[in-house]
Amino acid sequence: MSRARIAVVVSGFPRRSETFAINELLALESRGILACIFATKPGDGASAQPGIDRLLPKTHVLAPSTPEGQGAQVARLLASDEVSGVHAYFAHTPGEVAMEAAARLNVPFGFSLHARDVRKADPAALAERARRAACVIACNPDVARDLDRIGGRAHLVPHGVDLVRFRPRPEPCADRLRLLAIGRLVEKKGFDVLIAAVARARGASLRIVGDGPLRPQLEHQIRALGAGGRITLVGARTHAELPDEYADAHAVAVPSVVDSSGDKDGLPNVVLEAMASGRAVVATDVGAITSGVRHGTTGLIVPPRDAEALRRAIELLAARPEWRAAMGAQARRVVEHEFDLQRCAGVFADLVEHAYA
């Protein structure tokens, strides 16, 4: 029987955009090795996601403090609980908290890397943290390379996608290409570039699902381009509603960019969900997106911030429905082979359990 009993430190929890965290925590919980979850701050208050009811009873939100102070809180709360390790779900603040708590408890620690969390951490401190960690996991090749450049090493384990919830369904009947985009309305998602492209594209409409601080600017852009009849911002949707959104689209756009602060996507959830839904994806070569979207095979890749190239790709998808459908079918095969949630979460749980047993 495994001796592993693991405490996990996360950031804000739960969050609508971090389904991947819930899936992997559930994999630990189902094995009986998840002792508790410590959140460095409250979640976003969004609607509950599938499975969260199994995790909330084990979740404690830490009082605001420095990472050292929160690490001390974790250690005090675990003083009478024989945990065998502390794993952080992000490399920045949660990683610091986990390292501090583990030192006080005299147990090993480790952390998972995702995207922005690596760029938030001081490189020298992160490299040292990685060298001291018992377990470092990267969810995509881009962030694994970021760590490698500063002298750290990580196991590469993708998050995966639920192949039952997200499954191929027939394309909708429509005269225009129905293009879907999903994500927070923030700079790194590149929705301003997408709006500019669709406004000039022939035979395409766009539905953007999500909310965020750039909504007023994007609404103004749509009005200024006279594209209100073809481009719609529909606000946020629950995770339960997303499969129907994919089913009602012909293709999915992921026009990510590197934003003015240097932040960028890794491999966004939407890429794998779209592929699992049998939809071709038109995306940019940013972060680890091309680990899922293979140009001409599972979708189309264009340069970031290039509205004209994006327009041409959208028109190509509109003009060649059989090719588009073939790419969608291949996309499904790729996720079945490489990104199945049950297999990926199992590999994650195996690594964590072994590291802290």
Describe the fold and architecture:
The protein is elongated. The chain folds into two domains: 172 residues, Rossmann fold (3-Layer(aba) Sandwich), CATH 3.40.50.2000; 162 residues, Glycogen Phosphorylase B (Rossmann fold). Strand 4, helix 3 and strand 5 form a beta-alpha-beta unit. The chain has a seven-stranded parallel sheet with strand order 3-2-1-4-5-6-7, sandwiched between helices. The protein is built from 13 helices and 13 strands. The protein is α/β, with parallel strands linked by helices and 357 residues long. Helix 2 packs across helix 3 and helix 10 crosses helix 12. The termini are close together.
Number of domains: 2
**CATH third-tier fold name of the largest domain:** Rossmann fold
Shape estimate: elongated
* End-to-end distance: 10 Å
Q: Give the uncertain stretches in residue-range form.
A: none
How many distinct helices? Answer: 13
Task: Give the helices and strands as they follow along the chain.
Answer: EHEEHEHEHHEHEEHEHEHEHEEHHH
Mean pLDDT: 93
In what range is the share of β-strand residues? 15-25%
The CATH homologous superfamily of the largest domain corresponds to Glycogen Phosphorylase B
Q: How many runs of DSSP E, i.e. beta strands?
A: 13
Which structural category do the helix and sheet elements fall into? alpha/beta
Strand order of the largest sheet: 3-2-1-4-5-6-7
